[in-house]
Design a protein that fits this description.
Blueprint (H helix, E strand, L loop, with lengths): L1 H23 L4 H30 L26 E2 L3 H4 L2 H9 L8 H14 L9 E5 L6 H7 L3 E6 L2 H7 L22 H7 E5 L12 E7 L8 H12 L2 E14 L17 H13 L3 E2 L2 E2 L6 H4 L1 E2 L10 E4 L2 E11 L4
Amino acid sequence: MGKNRAEARDHGIGFRDRLLGLWTAGETLDRAVATLDTIRARLDEVERENRILIRQMLIPKERFWQGQPEPLVDAVPAPLAFAQSCLCRAQHFRQPYFSYWTRELGEALRYHRKLWEFVFICQALYERGMIVPGSRALGFGVGEEPLSAYFAGRGVEVMATDMSADQAVAAGWTQTAEHAAGKESLRRPALCDDAAFEENVSFQTVDMNHVPDDLTGFDFCWSACALEHLGSIGHGLDFIERSLETLKPGGLAVHTTEFNLSSDADTLETAQTVLFRRRDIESLAERLRAKGHIVVPIDFHPGYGDVDRYVDVAPYLYEPHLKLMLEGYATTSIELIVQRRSE
């Protein structure tokens, strides 16, 4: 990698000198731009090579993740698995409740943080008595995730929401199947039969930075890695607080988002994807508790196993993928559980 960096540096110096020569000789700007494009292409090539080398050096041995963990066919949900909010960790994937919820959601068991988010949301709601017939639920930024259909199949009345089609196109979510264009996008016959789906699922376009005042009276709400895309850390934290206002007194909010493992100081504060620091989460918890809400204690331990220590690099793997590198920061998923104050 040192050779590649030196090579890129030398190309940069050579380009500077050549560009000066082009200008002094009166050559056209088009030729200068062409030279710049060549340098950019070479830098992109060096970056791709470095990513491959980093992955080869850091990925854990296959015996730690390939074909693991083994599904537990007699698995059941836990009575209390998440007394605390926490970060995504490999140890969770090996618990019986994880196999249970993976099977319930029709997913493949694998070391992937998106699966962890779905399982955590389901387990956290289940153990707090929320996934029962007659409950009313509000999902934010649902994309094409299976949770709306699953909850509806268990008799929960679901209001699923996502951004407008224009916003989704501009953000690039339609290209990665991470946007719900409407109710039909959420249909999962294996999780919820058509009759229950039609009866229990509604859909509404919602900007999470401007949640409508008429969305109220829900027993619980959730979002799975959506609030980090609201433009800034401040917007994301404000959304969590605003989501509590959609709940009945004593209602439950369960949200997952990006957590910065690299720094409690530097981070991505205003971007298409922001990374929340420990201090951001703790500040929010203090703010919510001061208003009478119950914030479940948070365990910030990142895990200690081989799969936990691996930080994936783009283009990201199907597995293992619990932690990833995003613009120079290591990040993973964090789950937050907040109960609205009783009034």
